[in-house]
Design a protein that fits this description.
The chain is an alpha/beta fold. The chain is built from four helices and five strands. It has helices at about 15-25, 40-50, 70-90, 125-145; strands at about 5-10, 30-35, 55-60, 95-100, 145-150. Helix 1 links the parallel strand 1 (about 5-10) and strand 2. The termini are far apart.
Length: about 160
């Protein structure tokens, strides 16, 4: 029997490594999406079409740590990479595509944040994650894709720097 495939970008990070363990325990063959391949839509399409994943989890990000200050890298990782992933997703038969946003999308608030709060980021990192959220929603609607964006807050644990 062939195992269903779950493809994860950022598989070696805190969230990605935990999801790798979870989906392996659920009987999936879990594979990483090479970071640099996310920037090239053709390479990414070839890889994912060959894998034919049921689930894609986009956990890779750049700019969420104070040492990550390269604006071009932030754009490539948080805007171009998910754009390519969603573009390729149109050709796949996915059960789910989950992209990870950030609490930074909300900006600084005086009180507790809610999902219904409007994004009010003042950082480039937050802006790139807002862009991902909005075009993910647009892809889901326009192409009837099973896309979801999750916004974790203060992630700590194994694999966290």
């Amino acid at each position: 029997m062939v195992k269903p495939v779950c493809a994860i970008s950022g598989i070696h990070g805190c969230i990605g490594s935990h999801l790798q363990s979870y989906y392996t325990d659920q009987g999936y063959e879990v594979v990483g999406i090479p970071y640099l391949w996310m920037r090239d839509a053709h390479t990414l399409a070839s890889y994912l079409n060959e894998l034919s994943p049921e689930i894609i989890l986009h956990c890779a990000t750049y700019g969420n740590m104070y040492t990550q200050t390269d604006d071009g890298e932030m754009f490539a990782s948080n805007v171009l990479a998910p754009w390519n992933l969603l573009t390729v997703s149109k050709t796949l038969s996915l059960k789910a595509s989950v992209l990870f946003g950030s609490s930074s999308e909300y900006g600084t608030k005086q009180g507790a944040m809610k999902e219904s709060d409007c994004p009010e980021t003042e950082t480039l990192y937050g802006a790139t994650k807002v862009a991902q959220t909005y075009f993910s929603r647009a892809f889901a609607k326009k192409y009837t894709l099973p896309v979801c964006v999750v916004r974790p807050f203060t992630v700590i644990g194994r694999g966290d720097r």
